[in-house]
Amino acid sequence: MSKKSRFKKFLRMQKEIETGQTEEQVAGEQRDSELQRTEEHSKSTVATAGKRTGIIGMLDYLFNKKYKVLMILPVALLLFAIISIGVQYATTGDFINRAVSLKGGTTLTIPVEKAVDLTKLKEVLLKEFPSKDFSVRAITSAGTQVGVMVETDIDATESAEIDKLIAAIGDEIGIELKKENYSLEGTGAALGSSFFKETIIALLVAFVLMGIVVFISFRVLIPSLAVILCVFSDIVVTLAIVNLMGMRVSTAGIAAFLMLIGYSVDTDILLSSRVLKRKEGSVMERAYGAMKTGITMTLTTLAATVIAMLLTESEVIKQIMTILFIGLVVDLIFTWIQNVGILRWYLEKKDKHA
Amino acid sequence: MHKLKKIIKSVRVIIFLVFLVLAILTIHPSFKSEGVAIRNVVTNSSASLAGIEKPMKTASPMNREKIISIDSKKIVTMLDYETIVKVLKPDQEVLVKTNKKSYKLKIKPIVNVTVLGETELVEVPKMTTVVETVNGTSVTKTIPEVKKITEVINHTKYIFGTNESYIEQEVVEKEVPVTELKEVNKTLTEIIGTEDIGLTVYQAPTSNIRKGLDLQGGTRVLLTPAKEISPEDMEILLANLDQRLNVYGISDVSIKDASDLSGNQYVVVEIAGANEDEVKELLAKQGKFDAKIGNETVFRGGTDVNFVCRSSDCAGIDPTQGCGKNGDMWYCRFMFSISISPEAAKKQADITGKLSIVPSESTDRYLNQTIDFYLDDQQVDSLNIGESLKGKPSTDIAISGSGSGISRQEAIFNSLENMKRLQTILITGSLPVKLNIVKTDSISPVLGKEFVKNAITIAIFSLVAVVIIIMIRYRKPIIATPMIIMMFSEIVLLMGVAALIGWNLDLAAIAGIIITIGTAVNDQVIITDETLRGERAQYHNWKDKIKNAFFIIMSAYFTLLVSMIPLLFAGAGLLKGFALTTIIGLSVGVFITRPAYAAIVEILLKE
């Protein structure tokens, strides 16, 4: 197929979404309107025909009749997240907990054979360096402690201080620390802040560009806004949860948020294009079809992130996977409850006008 | 069977298979890692004297020269290499065989010369000073004296046919060195160890995929210039840094410039292999070396210095001073000679000509000012100028300095390291601007190896989990199998692209790979579902179904693509690897793998 004709088809597809009709639909139009009439008269019967009763029946009912009520859940979640981040900002002056790579300091990663008493190590370090801030964490893989990570605001370029730090840690753990058996990451304070600004700007620009692409793809306002709102909610709620967990976000973490934009958008575009372009079945049936595909997609990625999260020995990968995991679970709510709800409301409004 | 044939004949599948094969060839996997690959050869070491060359930076990992045996003992792991090298003795000759050539190495000893309190008479070559004209300037040089002698050689010649002989005399003129008896300090030369053969090695790679710092260990240093410099100066700066590190002896180095959204300039230096702390010293010092008499500069490091001696006959621990203990610490002095340019020598003559001689009773008399050496505006040494140098241009200068340690061995080692650094700075000169270190990452190679093993384990388990979910959802193997095969192929293709463009795989790149695989699986689910659904409703033909699926896929592709673009410019290029891997991976997937998968699905499910 030539580029020109492919582009023409793409334009035709967009028109289909706008008007809700394909060129080949003329033949099947009658059956479609019949289905629609049936739906209007008895929404619940179409939806519940052939489905089990009980919990699923109740969920079904909620989904179909009370979808507007159900939308309270995602909206409430988003509001709660915004308040939580606001509180964090008011109390700490920052809307996110930053790791060394985003605010300056030094991180030492030491693999260990036997478990280390973390609280004792932190005590020893605080005694040695009373004016400095320390965070001592364990690196676990499959449940066992495989390493120790010490984060501090000691400047990495003060080599005398760093040597003292390494000696103190080595003494406490009982391992002679030579260059071969530990990793050190040091970032100057000015650079850390600058990185933070940069990555946040990158995140915002990506978000805006994503919005533009979505709008160009769909051309209709409300569904595009619904997609953008869903992605926005995913990121904000994930951020709030990450803050509550006390996780310190590094440059890798910001990269994970960017990955989240991509995965979020995937499921939303799937839902919107299925619901808007097809005419067979009710809106909910189309939504259910999309849900089957979409949830499979999210499940495969979730499975991979869970495994990586549990087995990895790298803090970088662990942070990326954790953020992705939380984000994808949150996405399930926002895509399949909020976005579906908005689309339904939008289509019903459109039908009323038609 | 008939369907399989149709699949193989489909154009999109053929394109995909071609790329797949190309990818496998580029990766060039080998299942056993045998031998140790050469990362670096130290100049003037036994290895380099035997002819072993430094590896080219651009050589692909599988093409690197690797050592497979030493003296017929096979080398498979790093441990084999280290055990053999540990027991080498000075003056031993070993045969080092690599996958390319064989080399004969002579092991050099580490020699320490100590000066004893007594003196002895030795015959030494007599040195005399001559005046030569170099480039229009008369320069004084000290060379060994020679004298011409005539030698008469008697040849006995026989007359043909008789028993008579006669003697023919040949007069030959020869130049022989003049020696004299000189009283010198008695020295004791002791061999204190075996000099390292000068090879940095690492376990031979098993494929052409290059491992970044996070996976193989190394040091990454981020520097910013103290003030903003022009693009031309940045190029000079990068070239100078590269030369400095090469001269010092580190060749597996990557030096790039980077910037961020606010326009700040950075230099990113990455050195693979073992942690090298001295590098930070080399990088942070601007390296301004000035030799001044009073306030006037005689010469500067770099262009004014023609030659810096680095061989053991004119560089090393100062034999007249040696090492001594002061309190708890040992101190050693090192010395090496350099030649400065004739222009600089003339300048020195001009300046010394104006000085006066300090009156003294001893035979050694000095001028009233010293020549002071400054490194980065800090005085590091100061020498008296002998009266014989007054007004005379002299190109040979001896530079000395010191080093310290808690033991004699350590003091000697540190002195030699300091000497090496000073030699490097004198050879390469100073950087256009001072650099400040803003970030250092040093990753231990042990941890790096752990990551690789760990990453492979995670990849396997994740793939298994994804396969299980696909099987549960689709149940029919005819649907699940192509999906699973395509998933694996996607990974191989991505690795092939990484190997082809010489991309360094680090944690950021791995994150990019994760996104790519995740998106690939998602897209395949979309295509599969779209085509399966259609089987029930008869409204859309096949083309429409694929069209619908690809609309979703392309929209998602573009949104991810634009999300990655800001990362290419932000944050001093540290996330660039992640962004690039993702962009390339997604593009390869969307334009090669996905269409092929759609073709396969079409052929398999269409009735």
- The oligomerization state is heterodimer
Global geometry of chain B: elongated
Query: Ends of chain B: how far apart?
Result: 15 Å
Most extensive interface: A-B, 78 and 75 residues
Shape of chain A: elongated
Number of strands of chain B: 27
Residue-averaged pLDDT of chain B, rounded? Answer: 79
Average the pLDDT over all residues of chain A and give the rounded result.
79
Instruction: Give the helix tally of chain A.
Output: 14
Please report which band the strand proportion of chain B falls in: under 5%, 5-15%, 15-25%, 25-35%, 35-45% or over 45%: 25-35%
Query: C-alpha Rg of chain A, in Å?
Result: 26 Å
Query: Given the structure, what is the number of helices of chain B?
Result: 14
Radius of gyration of chain B: 35 Å
Give the distance, in angstroms, between the N- and C-terminal Cα atoms of chain A.
Answer: 36 Å
Residues in helix, % of chain A: over 70%
Strand order of the largest sheet of chain A: 2-3-1-4
Low-confidence stretches of chain A: 38-52
Indicate the proportion of strand residues of chain A: 5-15%
